[in-house]
Structure formats: C-alpha cells, structure tokens
Write a structure and sequence with these properties.
alpha/beta, 3-stranded antiparallel sheet, 21 helices, 42% helix, elongated, GAUT, membrane, Hexosyltransferase, EC 2.4.1.-
C-alpha cells in the first residue's frame, strides 16, 4: 500500500496491490467541508490498517478465528499487543495461590514427620503421588518445620555467644596470671606509677584526665594506647586505670613494663580508694547479697527465656543476666566526683572502645551547666543501634515507671562521656541512682533488667548535654552490618554487645580496628598464645 499527499494538502491518494492489480482511492479534502481532525483520523487509520490486517491473518492461521465474538477476539488480541497473556501458567499460579491460601487455614496435625530438605520434599511428592490439596498442606508443614529448626539454631547460637561472652578466654587468663607472677618477682614490674616527680600531675586540672575501670588487662592496654596515639598532645594526658584487687598486680605490671610515654598512667585498685566503703555504697552491697539478684545473675541463665522469643529479644534477655552488671567496677562511674575530688572535668571510657581521634577538644565543649556530655541514641541511620528510647530499657507496665518516666524520652550512651565534676557535685545524681537501684531490687528486678545504664538514665535526667554523634559510634559488638565508613570517621568506636573484639565470636571485619593496637610480638602476649585473628 502506498500513501501520497498532494502538495496543497487538499487530497490523499491511497493505492493497494492485490494479486498484481492496483486499486486507487483518492480522498479530496476541502477546508470548508472536512475538518483537520477528520483528516488526521483518516491518516492514522491508513497507517494502522495494514498492521491490523497482518495480525488478523496470523491469528487466523493460529486458529483464533474460532472466537465467535468481538470480546473474545479482544481478549486474545489485547495481551498480544501488551506482551503478556492469560495463559496456562497464569491460571496454574492462581490455582496454586488459592490452594496455599486454603492450606494456611488448616491446622497441621501433630506427629507427622515432614521432609527436612527440598530434595527430600520433592522425592516424597513423587513417591506418594499427593493430590494438590495434600501437596499444599505438606508444603505448609515442611516450611513451618524448617522455620522452627532455623529458629532453634539461631537461639542456640545466641546462647553459645552468651556463654562465650561471659567467659574469660584462656589467653587473657594466662596474661593476668603471668603478669601477676611478674609483679611478685620483678622489681621493675612493681615500680611506682606514676613516678614520684609526676605524682602532682594526678590532680593538675591543666592536664586532660581520662578514666577507665576494668579487670581486662589487654582491653585496658588498647584503650590507653589508642587514646595516647590518637592525641595531638599526648604529653598532656593523664590516665587513671582502676581495677579490682585480684587484677591489680597484673595491671600494674603491664603498664610498668609497657609505658605509654609521654602520657602519665596511674593504676589503682578499688580497695585503695578510702571513700569506697560499705557505708557509702550500701545499695551495691545489698545487691550482691540479695537472693533474687544472685539467682538472676549467677543462676540458670536460660530460665525465664521462651523458645518462642525473637532471637534479638532472646540475646537481650541473656545479656541482661551477665554477672558484670553487679560488679562494683561497672557501677564505679557514678562515684567519680567522690573518687577524684580535686578534678574538675574528666572523660570516662569503657574498656571495649578504641579511640581514633584526638579527644582533647571534648574539654572545649560548653556543656551549658550540664553534668554529662553524651551521644544520644534515639536518632541515626542505623535503625537498630540508634533507636533507643526509655521504652527500650524500662518496664512501663510497672506503676513506678509509668508514673515517673516518659517512654519516648531519648536515651544516651555510656562508654565515652565528658563529665563536669564540679557541676555534678551540686546535684543529687548519686542519691537518685541509689534510690532507683533499691526500688528495682525491692521489685525483684521488674523495673529494668539490663545493666547500669537504666538507673543512670533516671539519675542524669536534666543533666545531659547532647554532643555530636561522630564522637562516639556504638554497636560494633552486636551490629554485624555496621557502616565501615562511619567506623573509620568516628572519634571513638564502641564494641558494646556480646561480640567483643578479643573473643572468637568477634566480627572478623570489625576486629582489625581493635587488633591494630595490640602488640602481638610482646613477650607476655606471645607466651600466652594470644594470636592475631586471621581472615
């Protein structure tokens, strides 16, 4: 077919060829009688008709001309124009959806043994020649069974992680024993820390004072070492390392034999603080002797935990049973104004952090009269780590909690805090902390069950100044999908959670940020077979 328009646009000539003969049709267009709209319609039809003719011929050859109605033809033609069809596979899928939906409402009888793999499922289907309904029910049962097995495996994994997290690795235990032995036999390991001439610096507020409380010698070495190495003015740093009585000789030996010059390091045991008496910490004493508290932290850690729990909930419940939460070292930070009466400002660091940037600028932050400079944990890109509000930590079904606290109040992080001790001494923070600890013990631990942060969240209410989140990044001990770029750019990274970087269960891709601060060639580390993790 050929279409020819006259130069004046007043006529159209259409010629078609049929068995070698030409038919001519001439349409004259008059501006007075035919509008341009009709002209365009004719033009479009002239273009479409050949395609319709060819498609109709093809469909006729395929037998579609058996359709007896235009609707039938439309149903057949439409999908072909759109590239999809209401074919057998679509009908099969609709039938399958319907069967599965019906099977979903059927309660699976107990005692039926279901296949444990897809290949086993397929083999059983072929062997037994199940009908469609039985197939759907067996599919449901198999998937539910597999789901239960996967959940049991995940819960078992969390349980093993928990016991690994609260246990002391052989290498760390060996390190403590060897260094303790060194303290008793080597005079250099017992040398005074700091030296006599540097003692006045322990109370000098022109220096920058850092505090870490821990019984983990290797972890303490990383915290102190990374802080000093990251500082632009390490000669202005004074570190106060606090430990318990049994770890003191080993901790002292380590820093005596491995100085972090030019910084000043003091190692002190809790028993060397005259202020830390039973009279000043009565609630902590009560916690350690309370039968319910002892059972919670030292008893059967699986009791009270349901197999139906979500794995994250399960892990949280297990973590809440860690004995470290009733350790005096873990509660020590609430007594900083009394333990360091001469100091004005300090930075308190947890033992599972790594410092990657100079922290001295923290002293320049104006806390606006507040006591605690901390990173808030209720907003951020990570919806798991940075979504903590009071409802995360407290039982709002308890009348004391619902009456006094707001579930939507933003939480903040322990682990890297700048404390204004002068402002702190003017408050009732310690008394409030003790009051709520006592209430929780008297309530059989039903107000909260996780650690030292909940009572601190209450005690520091109205005394917290938010600081930029780049100062402190959390979650490296439980968030495997941590953003590595943010890790690299954060001043302090915190391995809070079960998967500590010194444990076998630590995340391999996050461990190098910590292990690079460990001297694996050190004699004591090498002899205790503390090995650098291999990718």
């Amino acid at each position: 077919m050929q279409i020819r328009l006259s130069p004046s646009m007043r006529s159209i000539t259409i010629s078609t060829s049929n068995n070698g003969f030409f038919d001519l049709m001439k349409v004259k267009v008059s501006a007075r009688h035919i509008s341009y709209r009709i002209f365009h319609i004719v033009l479009i039809l002239a273009l479409l008709l050949p395609f319709v003719f060819i498609l109709t011929a093809l469909i006729t050859l395929e037998g579609v001309n058996n359709c007896s109605s235009f609707v039938c033809l439309g149903r057949r033609l439409g999908p072909r124009f759109l590239g999809s069809g209401d074919d057998d596979s679509m009908r099969l899928m609709r039938d399958l959806y319907k069967l599965i939906d019906q099977a979903n409402a059927v309660e699976i009888p107990s005692g039926i043994k279901f296949p444990e793999s897809f290949s086993e499922f397929l083999s059983e289907m072929k062997h037994n020649h199940y009908d469609a309904k039985t197939f759907a029910i067996m599919l449901k049962g198999t998937m539910e069974n597999m789901d239960r097995e996967v959940k049991k495996s995940r819960l078992s994994e969390q349980l093993h992680k928990h016991f690994a997290a609260i246990s002391i690795p052989k290498g760390l235990h060996c390190l403590s024993l060897r260094l303790t032995d060194e303290y008793s036999t080597n005079a250099l390991a017992r040398k005074q820390l700091p030296s006599r001439e540097d003692l006045p610096l322990l109370f000098d507020n022109s220096y920058y004072h850092f505090i870490v409380a821990t019984d983990n010698i290797l972890a303490a070495s990383v915290v102190v070492g990374s802080t000093v190495r990251s500082s632009l003015n390490p000669q202005m740093i004074v570190f106060h390392v606090i430990t318990d009585k049994k770890t003191y000789p080993g901790m002292h030996s380590w820093f005596a034999l491995n100085p972090v010059s030019p910084a000043i390091v003091e190692v002190k045991s809790v028993h060397q603080f005259e202020w830390l008496t039973k009279e000043n910490v009565p609630v902590l004493q009560a916690m350690e002797s309370h039968h319910g508290v002892r059972n919670h932290y030292h008893g059967n850690h699986v009791s009270g935990i349901q197999a139906s729990d979500n794995p994250r909930v399960f892990a949280s419940k297990l973590q809440a049973k860690s004995p470290k939460y009733i350790s005096l070292l873990n509660h020590l930070r609430i007594y900083l104004p009394e333990l360091f009466p001469e100091l004005n400002k300090v930075v308190f660091l947890d033992d599972d952090v790594v410092v990657q940037r100079d922290l001295i600028p923290l002293w320049d932050i104006d806390l606006l009269g507040k006591v605690n400079g901390a990173v808030e944990t209720c907003k951020g890109d990570d919806g798991w780590v940075m979504s903590k509000r009071f409802r995360t930590y407290f039982n709002f079904a308890h009348p004391l909690v619902s009456k006094n606290l707001d579930p939507d109040e933003c939480a903040w992080a322990y682990g890297m805090n700048i404390f204004d001790l002068n402002s702190w001494r003017k408050t009732q923070i310690r008394e409030t902390y003790h009051h709520w600890l006592k209430e929780n013990v008297n309530s059989n631990l039903t107000i909260w069950k996780l650690g030292t942060l909940p009572p601190a969240l209450i005690a520091f209410r109205g005394h917290v100044h938010p600081i930029d989140s780049s100062w402190h990044m959390l979650g490296l001990g439980y968030q495997e999908k941590t953003n590595l770029n943010k890790v690299r750019n954060s001043a302090v990274i915190h391995y809070n959670g079960q998967c500590k970087p010194w444990l076998e269960i630590g995340y391999r891709h996050l461990q190098p940020f910590w292990t690079k601060h460990v001297n694996y060639s050190n004699e004591f580390i090498r002899n205790c077979h503390i090995l650098q993790p291999v990718d």
